[in-house]
Records
---
Amino acid sequence: MHLIAIGGSDAGISAALRARELDPGCEVTVVVADAYPNFSICGIPYYVSGEVTDWRNLAHRSIADLEAAGLGLRLDTVARRIDVQGRKLLVTGADGREELLAYDKLVVGTGAMPVRPPIGGLAGPGSLGPGDGVHLLHSMGDTFAVMQTLESAAPASAVIVGAGYIGLEMADALTLRGLNVIQMEQLPEVLPTVDSQLGALVRGELASRGVEVLTGTTVQAVSRAQAAGDGRLRVDAVTASGDPLMRHAETVLVVVGVRPETGLAAGAGATLGVRGAIAVDRGMRTGLPDVLAAGDCVVTHHRLAGDTYLPLGTTAHKQGRVAGENALGGNREFGGSLGTQVVKIFDQAAARTGLRDHEAVAAGFDPVTVASEADDHKAYYPGSHRIAMRFTGDRATGRLLGVQLFGHRSAEVAKRVDIAATAIFHGMTVDAVSDLDLSYTPPLGSPWDAIQIGAQAWAGRARLS
Ligand SMILES: Cc1cc2nc3c(=O)[nH]c(=O)nc-3n(C[C@H](O)[C@H](O)[C@H](O)COP(=O)(O)OP(=O)(O)OC[C@H]3O[C@@H](n4cnc5c(N)ncnc54)[C@H](O)[C@@H]3O)c2cc1C
């Protein structure tokens, strides 16, 4: 049995490790386009900030660890074509030579590519790139290019295009490095994956740290500045009211989301689904014989909303594990995502799980969303913080559908969103969250945990509506 995993990140490596775990006699090859298998790209902002001092520390496992687990690594090797009928994979190796690799089962984990938005100066003849201080950010290669700019050009200012979670983490990181950061976001509020009421709190944190936040601002062009002094790059944008807006900076980072990397699978005849991602069943099978797929390149099964596209590292790990098991003849199913996520912005954290109000409507629910606040632990014990909460539940059934939180990074926002995620995963009602037996000691919590206070606020309000 020879399993080939294409892609050396969360999905591909998880599939490969699971296969070896289940059958140590199975031959497993991982084909990786670059030389950085099993790196935690989620940690890139903390290497850029300087908090993680050596890029090698971002490796979940070293190459030696992976080889010790029995993985055959083909680094700097690009998968070019899948011959589904012949069960062969055409690759180009580091030396540029083509080779056909025979497989019994194939797991496609080609991940995602950063979106390059239609901004003048980013594509076409004479376009700007890393050498000019203009960057996209996804891979370790991108990271080294950003670090090269930061270390050789020592920029004093940066424009970040995009205020999703990666854009925010990078605003935090570059500010920590001492750069003046200007963040431009075309939507009306930052962190558009949470309700604007919480996004506004995130924006407040950015502003209090000196980040110039320009929402409702669509970047139209990046060009070389004519006069030296303010910064070597000029960023032209237009505001929501149609007024032109211009800023200078010495480096520009474009982080506006990702798209699934599906060329290889599509070329082999795989069906594509939501947002052009590879369609898979819950067992991560593509429908092509002996070809499975997992991670950011596939459609995500959402437990409440059905098929969607939700590229997250947590999901890629789980799907990869399922794919690795099923490649060996198993019958595992991916349990489904709730889009549970958390982001640290300076000293605050924002988190969400499940559905927001408009998403719940789209999924066929009759949602009510209620805002509330609670202390993270008893206020008489030093260091307590308020947590802002938004609970969404179904009016008819009382089922918990979604929770969004914002609070200090020490307020255990991540733990609390995970309680909500567990409750939603198992179909609990909002009322039942109030019954959960959660831990309590005054320095760390309250007899009613913040999450239960939010649940009670929802139940009280929902009864009246
Ligand atoms: C800066 C940043 C921060 C993030 N933070 C978080 C976070 O905090 N929490 C979270 O859950 N998620 C986070 N994510 C998202 C998370 O990293 C991704 O969801 C996850 O890496 C997806 O894993 P993947 O294996 O599906 O794909 P990818 O990580 O995209 O990897 C794809 C792999 O396939 C290889 N490849 C592609 N095409 C070929 C080919 N033709 N031949 C050979 N190899 C190929 C690539 O080289 C790479 O090894 C973050 C992402 C970034 C960029």
Note: The radius of gyration is 23 Å.
---
Amino acid sequence: MVEGLAQAEAAVLGCADSATWALPEQELIAALDAAHRIEQRLAAVKLAVIRELDGRGTPTAQGASSTAVWLRERLHLTVPTARRLVELATTLDTGNPAIRQALADADITVDQARVIADTVETVETSAGAEAADKAVGLLVEWAGQFDPTLLRKLGTRILDHVAPDIADAAAQAALDAEARRATRDRHLTLSTLTDGRLRLTGTLDTETAGLLRAAIDPLTTPTGPDDQRTPGQRRHDALADLCRLTLRTGELPEHGGDPAQLVITTSYDGLTRQLGTGTLDTGFELTPQNVRRLACDATILPTLLGTASQTLDVGRQRRLITGPLRRALVLRDRGCAFPGCDRPPRWCDAHHIRHWADGGTTSLTNAVLLCGHHHRHLHHSDWAVRLGGDGHPEFIPPAWLDPEQVPRRNHYHRRT
Ligand SMILES: [Zn+2]
Ligand SMILES: [Zn+2]
């Protein structure tokens, strides 16, 4: 075998030197086909060798913890690649011999062999050996036309062809297995990064995926022509809106005796009316600018510390726009009051036109309803808001946007 491979190597080496630029197109295509065919045949040989070494226990006898680890060291492969090689070698050896033969004959590729082996195994468990044999023949034939992805897809309905009497029941069983796998594999990982941000990874089961979509999709549409956010940023903000809404309902189970809420500890200097940097109960810092915005609305309860760090909580309830006051605000603004925004009231924060930290009152004449996006926008941009002569909010654009700074209103919720 080594001698044969050495001859093949020498022949291949000769090809590597040939001037491809000088070849006519026809010949190049023929060369491509031949190179690909040899690659598959060679893969069959390599897999057979791996299987034999694995079966003899050579890798472990040489001190490796497994055949995959040994292959990684010897061939400088990644662990997943090495593991897949061992798996396929085993499957081809123990599975239907026709698959191994098809690979050796270069009728199928390595990736197609993997798909066929998986599919045939499923067929054998649900319909028996005879159906499995038929399935191999059919799949090898299809492999002449279809790539591995399509082949896998076609494979899911192969029973229609090889065992039609049990196809429907098997399809149902496959669907059940799929559902069980989805339930088992559901997870959500929240990893806190060093700067306090959070990386979300996870897989939601179909039902939860539907719930998330239903809840988040209406919130991810742009809020108007001024909305410059990317889709990813809009989904992010929608998740924040969702959490804010949920906290506002007050229906979450208590957490350590307190109602579920976001608590920010911050300092407040009564003389200069300055809010300091804030600390979330997770220990991470917020800028004074963000503290001001968050302290605007009832979903976040700021815990104020005086100069001697004693809690200055007096009048907290009065700072928050809740109950009858919020209802009056909803009646007046009917949704986010920012020009062009269509967000309904339930997605909105109550913004203090003059911040309570600056001595602003908590009253209808000092409040305006804003969606999460526009609340952020107002706090972090040069837009300004005031109540017009008729008691309805109007927004003054920054000079760079409109040199005349003509006040604008929201005509979506209230036509004038
Ligand atoms: Zn605000
Ligand atoms: Zn808005």
Note: The pocket of zinc ion (ligand 2) is lined by residues 223, 336, 338, 341, 343, 370-371, 373-374 (CB under 6 Å).
